Amino acid sequence: MRIKVLGCSGGVGPGLRTTSLLLDEEILIDAGTGIGDLTLSQQRRIRHVFLTHCHLDHVCGLAFMADNLFDLIDEPIAVHASRETLQTLREHVFNWKIWPDFSVLPDENNPLLRWNEVAMDEKLELGDGRRITPFRVLHTVPANGYAIEGRSGTFAFTGDTYADDALWHFLNGLPRLDKLMIEIAFPDKEAALGYASKHFTPDLLGRELRKLEHRPKLYLTHHKPGTEASIERECRQALRGWEYAHLKRGDTISLS
Ligand SMILES: Nc1ncnc2c1ncn2[C@@H]1O[C@@H]2COP(=O)(O)O[C@H]2[C@H]1O
User: What range(s) does the Metallo-beta-lactamase domain occupy (predicted)?
Assistant: First the structure.
């Protein structure tokens, strides 16, 4: 199982792309601006998109990808997300005003996109021994992460989240957890903004991690542009004892 980081920043700027992960060339987890670096033929290979929530930085790429592929694919791309996320996307993005409704284009019988509602904590088979399970997280809008179990290990991605016991409860219930991609959007001095916008800061994440019974390698993501150096400095103290890396666009996470 190989996960390529197309984007993992909390915003945009030179060299920065928003959240999108490419799993084994055919599955996207979130569709932020990171998908803009995929060639047309790489985009054609995408069969599934799993969304964590409806915020623009995680979904905007889906709109452009659908348009790019208009007459290039025979089977619709399955867009998997919670009921709330799908409802918001359909009402507020793919509504013929912000963007055309690609779930009925080019025509109703051969659409570009197919909506698929996922239920929290219910596993979906991805083939080749891989299974994906959505789990609820706390954010300003309904949001979830995904745990992906493969033959050689388990990777979990929280998406955007804040401190919440349900998160640790779910992760502790996994038989194993080898790699955890988790967000830190702001440095400690912006803890109030972190609370308002439901994002972690280094100190808070360090304290919350004491509730985790697994000892995965941590991949830190979603740093807001301009905060990277402060977050990295604070993590040296807050995450002492943990193996961790600050993710960058282009990085690869492998489970082998
Ligand atoms: N009060 C607020 N609630 C939510 N988001 C906010 C607020 N103030 C600023 N923001 C920013 O708006 C952004 C929306 O996307 P994010 O959740 O990634 O991060 C959020 C913050 O950076």
Answer: 17-198
Q: What angle do CA 218, 220, 221 make, to 5 degrees?
A: 145
User: What is the distance between the alpha carbons of residues 101 and 90, in angstroms, rounded to a whole number?
Assistant: 8
Ligand 1: residue whose CA is nearest its atom 15 = 55
Write down the residue that tokens 């993992």 correspond to: 8
CB contact set of 108 (below 8 Å; sequence gap of 6+):
none
H or E, element range at 125: strand 124-127
Say yes or no: ipTM exceeds 0.95: yes
CA of 197 to the centre of ligand 1 (A): 5
Q: Could you report the per-residue pLDDT of 205-216, keeping only the tens digit for each?
A: 999 999 999 999
List domains and CATH numbers for the chain.
2-254 (3.60.15.10)
**DSSP helix/strand/coil, 133:** strand
Q: Is 226 in the pocket of ligand 1 (CB under 6 A)?
A: no
Task: Catalogue the long-range contacts made by 11-15 (C-beta closer than 8 Å, 24 or more residues apart).
Answer: 11/57, 11/224, 11/225, 12/225, 13/225, 15/249
**Ligand 1 site, residue 190, Cβ cutoff 6 A:** no
Question: 55 CB under 6 A from ligand 1?
Answer: yes
For residue 140 and ligand 1, the question of a CB distance below 6 A is answered with: yes
179-183 and 153-157 beta bridge pairing: parallel
Q: Considering the entire predicted model, what is its pTM?
A: 0.98
